[in-house]
Amino acid sequence: MTLAYVATILAAGPTTLLLALSSLLVAIVLGFAAAFAKLSRSPVLRGAAGLYTFVIRGIPDLVVMLLVYYSLPALLNQFADALGFDIRFEFSPVVAGVATLGLIFGAYMTETFKSALQNIPKGQIEAAMAYGLSRRRLFLRIVLPQLVRLALPGFTNNWLVLAKATALVSLIGLQDVMFRAKGAAEATAMPFTFYLVAAGFYLAVTLASMALLVHAARRFELGTKAFEP
Amino acid sequence: MRTILISLAAALALAGAASAAEAADRVSIATDATFPPFESVDSSGKLVGYDIELMQAVCDAAKLDCNIFGAAWDGMIPGLIAGKYDALISQLTVTEKRRKVIAFSDIYEHPVFRFVARKGTSFDFASGGLKGKTIAVQTGTPMDAYVTAHFPEATIKRYDSGSAPYLELAAGRADLHISYQAQIVNSFLKGDAGKDFALVGPELTGKDAKEFGEGVAIAVGKKNTKLLDDINRGLAAVRASGKLDALNAKYLGQ
Lengths: 229, 254
Fold this sequence. Notes:
The complex is a heterodimer of chains A (229) and B (254). Chain A contains nine helices and no strands. Chain A is mainly alpha-helical and 229 residues long. Chain A has one domain: MetI-like (MetI-like fold, Orthogonal Bundle). Chain A: It is a multi-pass membrane protein.
């Protein structure tokens, strides 16, 4: 019976991974947008991005999640009612989870991407422009490869924290690894066994991510050592 | 940016409309499946227990298409108020305070509450008699309200799960725990960890203290009178058919 519970818990693994990867995608998009906004010439964009990272980084993840899941739909519904629209907003735990984790880790990614962008030597950009490279090629050939290399350590950290933070979404009822582990623990009164299974799962995700990202880091480091002082 | 915002709004509106349409013909019922024998998950992840069987029987009798699913206890009542679920079944005690924000079906069970302690220990449950004793309870439950009101002299430790108090008892960090008698027997006394423990003190019900409420019922949103009528009709049919007595005997008999 214990083994059957273990299988049920691990069967929720894809849910947890899907949640983590979707959130990562949202976080990358938001992070890029906000990083460019922070470095832009427009004071409005700079202010908006600054406010976003300040507010999100200053509120506990759990609070943001509960606000998004319980309060935001209620607020939107009241708003829609007031405007006379007959629509009802309702977020499923998955949507609320992806939105929340994306929003939170987007703020952390912003800082990672911003400092990476700032650390790309200005001279290279000027040289590329002098050679008449189009903006697209400038970004793809000069900026992006270096951005990846510079941002990878911070990105790795953010990803590992994000993967573990998915456990929070079990609190709004998503049937992820953590939620199933809790169910099994309470049903059998054997909490240690099943929380250890959950711990093993998250550790495995971390190990796999590390292996993958260390490999990526090596590739992007290729040929850079010789030029460093 | 503008296009992104517009398409995002459209996607949200669609998601909203879709869930509203679904809610119209399907009754979504949340339960906190961490409270055996009333509601828990079996090893395949399926919901099982007294409340689950009862709810299914009520839905069948009232010809409702019900979807019972596990949710987290913390957000369940706020979720019902916000319209995330149509109903809740989770050994919910009917209290005046809860009646102010949600509607309850007819009461289907009058649970018995008991204390549990290590075998061979004795306690004085008279007023002031538990001085220096530690009572473990699940937070936010009628049991929590009861000991808080009646045993101010005791140290009360509150936990957010139903199983944590048993670990505290077994580890000797708490002297007493109070819960539904059927839950104590099923989750603890029947297992290995509970073999040195026994029920103590009087059998308590809603008649002994108002904190134990009027009984246990199914909760429905305040405005949803049609569903409440359907559920009450189903409940009456289940009671009349003898199915409720059978459930009581199966899960609550000693």
